Amino acid sequence: MSTAIVVGSGPNGLAAAVALARAGVEVTVLEAGREIGGGTRSGDLGMPGLVHDHCSATHPIAAVSPFLRSLDLGRHGLRWRTAEIDCAHPLDTGEAALLLRSVDDTAAGLGADERAWRRLFGPLSSSFDTLAEDLLHPLVRVPRHPVSLARFGMRAMLPAAALAHRFRTDGARALFGGVAAHAFHPFHLPATAGIGLTIIGAGHRAGWPVAEGGSAAITTALAGLLAELGGKIETGVRVRAAGELPPSDVVLFDLAPRAVAGILGDELPKRVAKAYRRYSYGPAAYKVDFAVDGGVPWSTVDCRRAGTVHLGGGFEEIAATERQIAAGTMPERPFTLVGQQYLADPSRSRGDVHPVWAYAHVPSGYTGDATEHVIRQIERFAPGFRERIVARESRSATAFEAYNPNYVAGDIVGGANTLRQLVFRPRAAFDPYRTGVPGRYLCSAATPPGAGAHGMCGANAAAAALRYLERVQLS
User: Fold this and answer.
1) DSSP letter string over 151-210?
2) Could you list the residue ranges forming a coiled coil in this record (predicted)?
């Protein structure tokens, strides 16, 4: 029987382990921390009775992941739950644009942009399962559905600012801009439209679900399936050098490229080591978790029914603040995401005290305290919020890296979404998962298709490792 070591137990590491174990490989996962999960961990954060997601919270891409959908994770406790409204984007006028699972219902709320929204996202959502077969794999390969991918790519390669010109209303432009901001990249640069199109398309296909009981349920379910398949997980095992790895036929690293360069050292080809060390990271997140009595008192009532609320004003304001953080300047009113996961999953609350998850976009490695920035941004659209706060816990950009070393300088999306790194991540190669060392693979969010709890980076890397094992056995 072939053997494998997976270093790191985030969703990609565990997905890789499950994919290998399903193929009959004996797998051991090594996790440096005391608990598994990477960015999908959950807990009370010192607020007893509440469940907070530590990072990853809402999962539109995971819900359409071909790999996760191929697993019966419901047997291991994973239940997806959705709020009545997937995402709301309030404006200073007191109105809010609403993103619903239904394309038609979303479009109907956008006034003069009803037709434009339906024409853009109707075909995208209806064909998203087919498109995902290419989008969630490396782009540098022969596509399974070249026509669909080409049609998508024509729009996805545009700057978000260019695509926003399709819309005439402030609401539609802001709604698209708030989702496009998940790229953590300035809107005037190429391919920033692609993140917005992908997340909105996936949401219209499957909604923006949360995992019942917290995002930790995703990796708990994967770990349960892995155990069923005979795989093992060892926690508290930190790998710093190649010599510390147990003997195995293949090793997969759910780590940042620089960490892999440090572990493999001189074993790496020089060109690969250089690429890994030069891999670039984008702006950071500054997170604040709240315990809120009675929930957030949003001025726009619809926001009280939304699982996610994007705060940043109109499209132009979001674009300006994203340029600022990319340039290393902290904006006074940063783009802020608010998660109200308890609306879909009431088990996370304690009576009328609810967990509210929020983070602001801040410059890479930002060392300041942005807690007040977050509170003021929420207060802007929910006057009286401050008086409802029962408790709060902040996590800075540098604390994010301490929590999860893959979040270099607070970058929670696994690397800057530059055009080069969207197409070639972590380096220019036909097989981006190979490290250049036989049997050694990278499977973190620094590989295609990038950030998310979808497990596709791990599944794709495992497929590459299995091809290697097959070649070795045939030789």
Assistant:
1) HHHHHHTS-HHHHHTT--SHHHHHHHHHHHGGG-S-TTSTTHHHHHHHHHHHHHHH---E
2) none
Task: Indicate whether 302 and 161 sit together in one domain.
Answer: yes
Provide the token pair at 246. Answer: 């147990």
Amino acid letter for position 241: A
- For β-strands 26-31 and 3-7, DSSP reports them as parallel
Does the model's pTM come out above 0.85? yes
- Sign of the alpha-carbon torsion through 12, 339, 281, 200: positive
- Provide the token pair at 453: 């709890």
- By the 8 A CB rule, do 180 and 38 touch? no
What separation, in Å, do the N-terminal and C-terminal C-alpha atoms of the chain show? 16
Burial (CB < 10 A; 0-12, 13-18, 19+), residue 173, is buried
Q: Is the pLDDT of residue 142 over 80?
A: no
Q: Are residues 378 and 419 in the same domain?
A: no
Mean pLDDT of 19-42: 97
Rounded to an integer, what distance in angstroms lies between the CA atom of residue 283 and that of residue 31? 26
Predicted confidence (pLDDT) per residue in 382-438, tens digit: 999 999 999 999 999 999 999 999 999 999 999 999 989 988 899 999 899 999 999
Is residue 397 within 8 Å of 409, Cβ to Cβ? yes
Going by C-alpha positions, the residue among 206, 205, 229 that lies closest to residue 73 is: 229
Asked whether residue 181 is assigned to any structural domain, the reply reads: yes
Same domain, 197 and 218: no
